[in-house]
Amino acid sequence: MSAVEVESVRARSEVLRGQIDSMMEDLRTRTARLATAQEAIATSTAQARSADGSVEVVVNASGALVGVKFSADAFSRTTPRKLAVAVLATAGLAAADMRRQNAEILRPFIAAAQVDLPDLIPGAPSLREGVPVGAGDDDVAWNCTVLRSAGNA
Fold first, then answer.
1. Structure pTM?
2. Distance CA 150, CA 43 (A)
3. Could you report the per-residue pLDDT of 4-13, keeping only the tens digit for each?
């Protein structure tokens, strides 16, 4: 290789190294943001109050009921059946709010997940398209299980 060719390879290597360093820094930043988002979701709660004010519920990040409060007159002004319905309906409202909060926290990560390899590297194969059946080595049947292909059916 001539000195010009060597210098050209070095220059391209430096450009690639810079791109890799930039991607690694971006990965570290995104990983830290994701950890913060996971912590926010893990510790979050949502609460809701029934329309008549007799019930207040709290749900955790997965929508599970973690707290119920009844107004002082809740048992005297309604039936147990209606109170149970109010608890379930109010828990549903709180769980819906929790899902909305979680979606809002995760919105930046969902948007980032829509990026595909060709968006980053021109000419790269798409991850969205998958591997076509029959692609690759003609001797390998990609559409059968390993046990069956080995005669272990």
1. 0.62
2. 49
3. 999 999 999 9
